[in-house]
Amino acid sequence: MKKIDPDKVNVILATDCGSTTTKAILIQKIDGVYRQTHRGEAPTTVEEPLSDVTLGVINAVTEVSELSGRVLVDENGRLLHPAQGDRGCDIYISTSSAGGGLQMMVAGVVAEMTAASAKRAALGAGAIVMDVIAANDKRKPHEQISRIRELRPDMILVSGGTDGGNTTQVVQIAELIAPARPQPRFGRNYRMPLIYAGNRDAAPLIERVFDETVDLSIVPNLRPRLENENLGPARDKIHDMFLEHVMAHAPGYEKLMSWTDAPIMPTPGAVGNILQRIAADQGLNVVGVDIGGATTDVFSVFDRTFNRTVSANLGMSYSIANVFAEAGMANVLRWVHLDPRIMDERELRNRVKNKMIRPTTIPQTREALIFEQAVAREALRLAYVQHKEFATTLKGVQQQRTVGDTFSQAVGGQTIVDNMKLNLLVASGGVLSHAPRMHQTALLLIDAFEPEGVTTLAKDSIFMMPHLGVLAEVHPKAAVEVFERDCLIYLGTCVAARGQGKAGRPCFSYSIRGETLNESGAMAVGDLALLPLGPDETATIACEPAKGFDLGAGPGRRIEKVIRGGTVGVVLDARGRPLILPERREECQATIARWVERMELYPDAEVIAV
Amino acid sequence: MAKAYTPGLKVTTRITHRARRVLPIRGDVLVKKGQRVGPRDIVARTYMPGDVEPVNLANLLSLPPADVPECMLLREGERVKKGDALAQTRGIFGLFKNTYHSRHEGTIETISPITGQVILRGDPIPVQVDAYLAGDVVEVVEGEGVVVEAEVTFVQGIFGIGGEAHGRIVMAGLSHDQELTDDLVTSEMKDCVIVGGARMTDRAIKKARDVGAAAIVSGGMDDQDLKEFLGYDLGVAITGNEDVGLTVIVTEGFGEIAMAQRTYRLLQSRAGDAAAVNGATQIRAGVMRPEIIVPLTEADMARVPEPAHIQASVEVGMPVRIIRDPYFGLIGEVSALPAEPQTLGSGSRARVLEVKLDSGESVVVPRANVELIEG
């Protein structure tokens, strides 16, 4: 990789090779500031008959060329480097999740401790974790071996034991993996990369267990002591092995790797990177979600602790049938305010399966859109539940509850996700980013994630976060500038009260003072209100919650905060937390219809097509 | 887009098809390049390593792991039968020895002094691969298998379950839009590939299985019926390993949908001929669609011309199928390609095209909601 002088960089080209689509963006220095100026996309070309990812990259970059008037590809189909006049770029970088991304198996000794830490390392590196094998995972050894043989991981991560501790159990896990001879996805000429990140004293013993069919790497223990994790070395090694093994075997990737000015990152790894950077720079607690066709990724940073989960079974096309299987038809339909007679279950099941087998179609009618957004709510809700269950304090560690002599008997494991502390909720993924109205995106986020207190809502306009995540590795200044100016579209702010009460009773009163918005009022339990406050506008809100309700300062205590506007505005949410919908179908339908109207989700629009 | 690519299903009277037939691990290739093979001929064979049974003798005999090797009565590489004495403790002054008798049969692969675990490897499992279709071996992949090539009629479905099967094509109904009901399935269709028309009912599918048909193919089916037939709700479209006694292939989608006339006529023209079918479907990361392949004889090839190559981008005059409600399943011809995105009923803006349906009606649909009918 060439050394980059950030000051000499004026034109940056970035691509993201997704499973379906390859996206390209152009970033240019304009008046001393980096801005994203153009974007293009084309279908990803890893599959037959084309089988060369660089073709899709060139197609996407060509579209950017056509739109920007800047020649980026020469007559031989190669990218032009460096930028000269109106030709070429100074940096080219890329991320990838094509071909299903990086799929890993992890193993540890105790499911809740070292195995959980290994899973976190893998997820943090951008992998999909196919299975977690642990000595205490309730499966018999021969069942674990069968499972290992069934899986076709790209890579394996083994952890176990604190440094200086017992070596037997982690060697035992290795002795199950070795004879199982897991077969990689990419065929017989591929040596399975295996990373050992456990008790350092067991490393020589681990080396004796595996033969030359495995490409073994030893890295520092990812759980050197129970009280702390050291995920960095394992995560970095996963990334290196990803490039060396997985990417190098995927069609066209070797060529692509020779084009880029920084190592190609797995897409989710890059998204996590930029979110962590922004959370650190601005001192925020952030949740980001990327809902795709097959998977939903949730990222969070709470009190500087980063977590990522991949709900590999929840998505809007390939996995849409799974969403139904997990949520149930009733839970999906409760979000639909339309006449139930038009939603026959047999017919709906067919529609869902048709979307699964033809994933690139889009909803044409309003009814189809409403149904898809109902599915999205459940997919997001379930993905967040899975995330909260995973993003916990370290298990196995005694928690000191009070200053002084008293130690609690608890063994950790409480979720660190706290919706009241959440400052910023960022959405990406087709169903969120490409919703016809941003009001729909806003309510989708609020219904699924149930933010409490005061939370800013934003969407990643064109899924730029992966590009910026990898750009941050070589040009942090450019990445942060583009993120702040061009990446996020602010939808506005949600002010929501935690607590439950009888419908119609007082929930909280409010007073908003700003240049363009001056309003006061009272919210009753069950109410939802939308107030206009535009992008780049701010106002000060003061709220007095009723008894039993909390807006962030404690039950019944007043809050006052500066809030920002957006394309949607300010949403005052007195529906209660947790959000509970009426059980009876008719009442639920009427309630949803009322919220739809308050939030102006589906106003009549002049259309040309039906 | 600079180069739009709208993949559709392949349905063609004639194409050169290559089937890659390889083993999951290295083995022996049993045929030669240039050899003519039949669909059931075994082209490659190997043995998968047997099942692994770990035996934790340290726990079973209450021994420190380091003591296990010297208590073993058999060594690495030796064979053990069920009931054989595998290890024995030294006891106290030669008394109170404890013996472990093997509960499994296999070969001792490793004895670990670190964990006290003994790995037993069961007998190798034979694995073989057949040619799948009648054709010529055009390539031998050393130690792995072969590529078989044939001129075939090729019909791709949209979704299927069940793996590879073979049988003669038999038409169960009279038209492409006739529902495939159980009364149309007869016992004479044993070992056949039954071709229907529109939606196949759950009773038709079950009857096809009961009469011993190799496969059943029709335009559509209901997801509810698929769930009942499989016994579970299918979560993702990765299929091919279902052990349900029948390969099922849907050519158009879920619901009440007629098979495309072109597809129907093509299959009808091959009635009585031997077909190779595969219901395996995988939508993401390596798209695989179910297929019906009917090799052409020399006589067929003399009279069936190769179809003209079809461009991958959408143009006025091209036949398309609408693949999303509210016009799901309808077939027509592209009559206009407006350049500017338009606002749909959903409120989204998208590039659209105008389709003149077979009925004569014209509709406007998003470009993402049509697929080309190739071939």
Can you put this structure into words, describing what you see?
The complex is a heterodimer of chains A (610) and B (375). Chain A has 610 residues and is of the alpha/beta class. Chain A has 17 helices and 22 strands. Among the domains of chain A are: 6-98, Nucleotidyltransferase, domain 5; 101-259, 3-Layer(aba) Sandwich (Rossmann fold), CATH 3.40.50. Helix content of chain A is 33%, strand content 24%. Chain A has an 8-stranded mixed β-sheet with strand order 13-12-11-14-15-16-22-19, with helices on both faces. A 5-stranded mixed β-sheet of chain A has the order 3-2-1-4-10, sandwiched between helices. A 5-stranded parallel β-sheet of chain A has the order 6-5-7-8-9, sandwiched between helices. Chain A starts with 10 loop residues before the first strand and ends in a 12-residue tail after the last helix. The relative contact order of chain A is 0.09. Chain B is mainly beta. Chain B starts with 8 loop residues before the first strand and ends with a strand. The interface between A and B is large, with 69 and 66 residues.
Salient structural properties:
heterodimer, A: 610 residues, alpha/beta, Nucleotidyltransferase, domain 5, Rossmann fold, eight-stranded mixed beta sheet, five-stranded mixed beta sheet, 17 helices, disordered C terminus, B: 375 residues, mainly beta, OB fold (Dihydrolipoamide Acetyltransferase, E2P), SH3 type barrels, 3 domains, 16-stranded mixed beta sheet, four-stranded antiparallel beta sheet, 6 helices, 11% helix, elongated, disordered N terminus
